[in-house]
Amino acid sequence: MRTRLAALLFAIILPSHGAEPAPAPPNAYLYIGWPNDGQVVSSGKPIRVWFGLRNMGVAPKGVKFPNTGHHHLLIDTDAPEPGVEIPNDRNHLHFGAGETETTIELPPGRHTLQLVMGDDRHVTFDPSIQSKKITITVK
What we know:
Layout: H1 2-13, E1 29-34, E2 40-41, E3 47-54, E4 57-58, E5 68-75, E6 92-94, E7 101-104, E8 109-118, E9 134-138
Parallel strand pairs: 2-9, 4-5
Antiparallel strand pairs: 1-3, 3-7, 5-6, 5-8, 8-9
Keywords: Signal
InterPro entries: DUF4399
Protein name: DUF4399 domain-containing protein
């Protein structure tokens, strides 16, 4: 009895990582509005990154509503597969409050940027909703 109760509480309290991914809304289109692919930006200054999204809504983490999600900016890394929880580290920036732009600082050199939408649990949609990966150069 005690083991069954503990297992039930464990399942309720902890998020389910094996749950089915949320279905992607049809025709959802995610893009980086700024900077542009191939852009050269100055080092030592924050870089403004503007997120664009069509045919889908933005909602904060934890808000489960059909055809909505929130942005994740990937820096110098590849997008996760559909149905995968997006990590939270220096290469995977979460915007769980529903933000649609940010500023970042990058060291000099070439860098890739890509947006990926996550659902209310930071899990990628199926199929994955992601922008084209762009390359910028910081000088």
